[in-house]
């Protein structure tokens, strides 16, 4: 459901962008992003209440963050985006074809490379909760509006990337649900809530830069901790 909503908002944003061009006020876009940032923090906080043992979440965030920082996940995501844009973005071309490819690639990267996509897809696949993808959908809609007004219809074709990548992650999470216990899902949800608050604070409200991508391993660490504690009879 979240991916379908995301596709619809990108198409709507793209259509409006084609019609309005650059006439959509920048201040209005900034206000919407700020509202989404505040809402993200509220959603993240609500998700943390799913935890039955907040120390598991703390351990997962700390261990996952250290692993992610050592591997350089956040920086890697940025480099992948830069590489793809450089290889296929046709920088410097002013023609229609160049703009189409550039718009498609840039929009695909913006809408699919990032922790919000991964977190939202996992949340949607595990328990049908698409609140985070709904937030992302609104953001992507405004992003599509802005990109389409300058780069054209190629931006709207990024919905193909969203369908394959984001939809695929949701399906994988749905299959993983069969091997995860309720306790594991609860701690994963709470851990994801911490990361969503990080997105709200760092990426949307821009209060403090937070490399949220580096915390992604925590989503794997959390259920592992639950499994180990259960193995030793602690939970």
Written overview of the protein:
The structure is a single chain. By secondary structure, the chain is mainly α. The protein has one domain. It has 10 helices and no strands. The protein has helices at residues 2-20, 26-48, 54-71, 73-88, 96-112, 115-127, 131-151, 159-176, 182-204, 218-231. Helix 2 packs antiparallel against helix 9 and helix 9 (182-204) packs antiparallel against helix 10 (218-231). The longest helix has 23 residues, at 26-48. It is elongated, with a radius of gyration of 19 Å. The mean pLDDT is 84.
State the gist of this model:
By secondary structure, the chain is mainly alpha-helical. The protein has helices spanning about 1-20, 25-50, 55-70, 75-90, 95-110, 115-125, 130-150, 160-175, 180-205, 220-230.
| Gyration radius over CA | 19 Å
Shape: elongated
Distance between the first and last residues' Cα: 34 Å
Number of helices: 10
Helix content: over 70%
Q: What's the total number of strands? A: 0
Topology:
Elements (H helix, E strand, L loop, with lengths): L1 H19 L5 H23 L5 H18 L1 H16 L7 H17 L2 H13 L3 H21 L7 H18 L5 H23 L13 H14 L4
Features:
elongated, 235 residues, mainly alpha, single chain
